[in-house]
Amino acid sequence: MAGVPSGAGLRGGESSIWSRDFGLFFGARAVAKLGDTMLPVALAAGLLRHGHGAGAVGLAMAATTVCFAGLVIFGGVFADRFSTRLLMIGADLVRLGAQALAAVIFFTGHVVLWQICAIGAVNGAAAALFQPGVASTVPRLAADVQKANGAIRVAESTASLAGPAAAGVLVGLASPGAVFAAHAATYGVSALCLLLLRLPPPRAGSQPHSEGFRADLVQGWREFRARTWLWGVIAVYSVLMITTIGPTVPLVATLVVQDHGSGAYGLVNSALGAGTVIGGLIALRLRPRRMLRAGSFALVANCAFPVSVGAGLDVPLMAAGAAVAGAGASFWGVMWATSVQTQVPPDVLNRIHAYDVAGSLAMLPVGQALAGPAASAFGAEAVLITGGAMTVVVVLALLSVPAIRGLVRADAHTGPPATSGQGKAPGPGPASGHGSERGPVARPRAHTRTSDLKRD
């Protein structure tokens, strides 16, 4: 729905989100996710086939993650200063070239680890430029931001199911180089979709005033810090990253493969992916007034996966636990993304989303790194069960913060935005233009010529 203000979605899903431009963006996200989930299979098969060990695979993946997490905040500043669409197209083209080069390396058989890590670092840097623009693009394309996020989550979850399977077939029938070539092609398709995309003009007052790169970076941090519900969720969620999400992937893989074989691990992962699809579908229908409170209750389901594996349950029960966890985490993800996209002013949304992504990712490698020592000291089963218990602790912590549990969805507001850091509904009056709680540092400003560069 072109030109509809952020947060102005119609209640109850009364209007379809589908339009030519949203369909193009939807396709770009789905095909890119398909390629991204093919990459781990290609890296593992390719590096192991050419004499490298599991440590090399982890190093290559870490090169991408570190560059992405380290640069995404700067990407948020660029996205608020310039055209988000052009930045995303440029990032896709860079990744297309990088993955095409990786395909050539694996096709020729001259695989050098530092070269693969360098390509991974380039991919991470490009992703850091791409990701912040996603947050501001969704509300510009769809009147119903929650429904749009739910649809994209379903598409990405479905792609996550298909990606590893497709990569495995390509490796078996051709070679790891073919997977890298296919991955490069997905970025080409994404770039084409974004090239054909036509974003509606930014609303008056939504373009950022710029006083220089450093000042923009500092302003983004001030805006982030001014919203208690925002930084509160990130702070609490980092505990979940360390204690539950980080250790779950390596420890579940180890226990399930050792006790039941790789086929069972594949089944459990498929169930997890199916659960995320279900969670996205539920998020298309349920429209809670207090989105973060509802999402927090759903997040409790995340404990089912590590607990079912840690308790040594049979494969069908572990798969059921994975599906339940996937559904809960997916529903929470839609509630969180929609809250950020509709409660934050458009002129700082990309920067705040970048701080959100960076803060969410920062503790993940810590949890992964601590998984091995913790399992050696206490046993993998105990670590997973503790991770499940910590999920409940994290949810209780989220619900204990009034600004988080009380945040009212933007399209339920009936007056001027609430003060910074509070989730209270405002008093009677006309609906808010973008349903955001601006806080004391976000006030109307005059615009400079720098904002003229932000044309989509």
Please characterize this protein's 3D structure.
This protein has 456 residues and is mostly helical. The protein is built from 16 helices and no strands. The radius of gyration is 22 Å and the shape is globular.
The low-pLDDT segments are 1-14, 414-456
Following the backbone from N to C, one meets helices and strands in this order, namely HHHHHHHHHHHHHHHH
- Name the beta content range: under 5%
Q: End-to-end span in angstroms?
A: 16 Å
Structural class: mainly alpha
Secondary structure tally, helices: 16
Largest sheet, in brief, is: none
Rounded Rg: 22 Å
Number of strands: 0
Dominant shape:
globular
Give the helix/strand layout.
Elements: H1 20-49, H2 54-81, H3 84-108, H4 113-141, H5 145-173, H6 176-196, H7 213-225, H8 228-260, H9 262-285, H10 291-299, H11 304-310, H12 315-343, H13 349-362, H14 364-378, H15 380-399, H16 402-405
